[in-house]
Amino acid sequence: MYIVTAEEMYKVDRETISTIGLDGKILMENAGREASKEVEKRITKEETIVILIGSGNNGGDGFVIARILSEAGYQVKAIQVAPNEKITGDAAYHKEVYRQFGGQVERYDEDIIDTVLQEADVIIDAMLGIGVRGPLRGDILTVTRQVNQQNAYVISIDIPSGLPADEGSADFQAVEADATIMIGAVKQSAVCQHTSSYYGEWIVADIGFPEKLFQAHTQRRLWTTARFKESFPKREVNAHKGNHGRGLIIGGSDPMPGSVLMTTKAALRTGSGLLTTASVKNVISMIAGNNPEAMYIAVPEADGCIAGINHIDLSDYDAVAVGIGLGRKEATAKAIFPALLTFEGPVILDADGLYHLKSYLTDFESRQAPLIVTPHPGELAALMDISVPELLIEPFRYSAAFAKRYHCYLVLKGKHTIITDPDGNQTVESSGNPGLAKGGSGDVLTGMILAMVMQSETIFAGINNACFLHGKSADLLVQEKHSEQDLLAGDVIQGIPEAIRTFS
Fold it and tell me: Nucleotide-binding: is it a keyword of this entry (predicted)?
């Protein structure tokens, strides 16, 4: 499932018509029919349905939906919120078809629209599509405000009217939908923090756009259950522990022993073949009994923090995770980071590791081996010297810029986690729930990424699958025995086996 900007979607649509030869009227019919199927899942024939129809393809979809629902016996009132001269091309064709079927189209009347909307049980928003530029004006703005004041169930077609399809805009007024039926692909703003709430529940209707055109025009996709199943590593009958990765975790300090404990447990639960945790002596004494399956290396320390790792041969390991519970003392970073720069395997940096990374960014820029960074928005904003609001307005652009410049894999954590590879390919993983908004959730994810990167055919697939399992574990736990309030990071670790059994 692809994620597109408005321009990318237009290119796919144009080339489907001009190159593939699929007529625009057929695409509009397909869109209306598929959207109608989704609408019918959410309404009853006892409810009064008002369809607000604008110009362009979105309005044309509205005429098709009005015809199909009317023919199916639903109580439909079609309101055209655009001048007749603006209804042209394929939309005009489908308006006429609707009328030939006996459908009635009422023109927008500002004197009665408020009453019409108040009497509606369901409002279908087919006023504006993905081509919105700038703030709403005139009748569309008035109707949008009125729709948002109603208690009716609101379904938007393709995109809530007034909402930009792309990231990057904060100045807009838009319909606040309860559900959105997107046509062909996910629109970028559906997975951006400041715009996603306008969509409500969303689904994507497949109307026949060729897969190859999406592949040609966008580098963004959703990481779905199907992609997880395709890429999740399967163990061979004769496999042994050495086949599934020798991982090293470097972290922990006297003030923060719990972080590295959770990372260690999560890596083991996610299938790491051999796992070693390097930390200060007190931390090891506290956590070793809880993780007898792991091995431990005590490191030199100063004031309860790591002060050296020179006695560890990093070449013995396939991947290293660094930063969990590390602390922010400069001496700690100096004791660890120079060795990481010469390590030839993947390095995963999280938590305090990201804090220290800023001083070493230039050094890592020239490092050839893979670097994986897992910041939340505040951490990435600090690394890029921008504000968090700036980042959240354009998370895709900033993520791609950072990943390309520093040749790294970037996991920008959030409700819609954006994962970017060094070439700018991006996926979004949207599982999980607010129960993950607690200390320790990121430590668990780091351990899972370490384990999956060592077991997967590609680093990118490993990262995506770790994020997928992390969110799905939380979702299953909340569905079955926990609430979002009481869910703990340690519970997520215990939920990993069920998530693997359910989805793999």
Answer: yes
How far, in Å, CA of 434 to CA of 430, rounded? Answer: 12
Bridging pattern class, strands 409-412 and 417-420: antiparallel
H or E element that contains 203: strand 201-205
129 annotated to a ligand binding site: yes
Task: Output the CA–CA distances (angstroms, integers) from residue 340 to 122, 206, 234, 334, in the order listed.
Answer: 58, 46, 30, 11
pTM of the model: 0.95
CATH of 3-218, one of 3.40.50.300, 3.40.50.10260, 3.30.390.10, 3.40.50.150: 3.40.50.10260
**Alpha helices (H) in 312-360, listed in sequence order:** 330-342, 352-357
Determine contact, residues 475/492, Cβ cutoff 8 Å: no
Characterise 440 by phi-psi region: left (phi > 0), alpha (psi -120 to 50), beta (else): left
387 is in an annotated binding site: no
C-beta separation of 339 from 315 below 8 A: no
pLDDT at 128 over 80: yes
How far is the C-alpha of 491 from the C-alpha of 483, rounded, in Å?
11
The answer to whether 350 is annotated as binding is no
Annotation-wise, does 135 bind a ligand?
Answer: yes
pLDDT band at 242, cuts 50/70/90? confident
Main-chain phi, psi angles of 6, to 5 degrees: -60, -45
Main-chain phi, psi angles of 156, to 5 degrees: -95, 145
Dist CA 381 CA 331 (whole Å): 24
Query: Residue 339: what residue type?
Result: A
The predicted model gives 395-423 an average pLDDT of: 97
449 is in an annotated binding site: no
Task: Assign a CATH topology to domain 239-503.
Answer: UDP-N-acetylmuramoyl-L-alanine:D-glutamate ligase (3.40.1190)
Give the pLDDT score at 455. 95
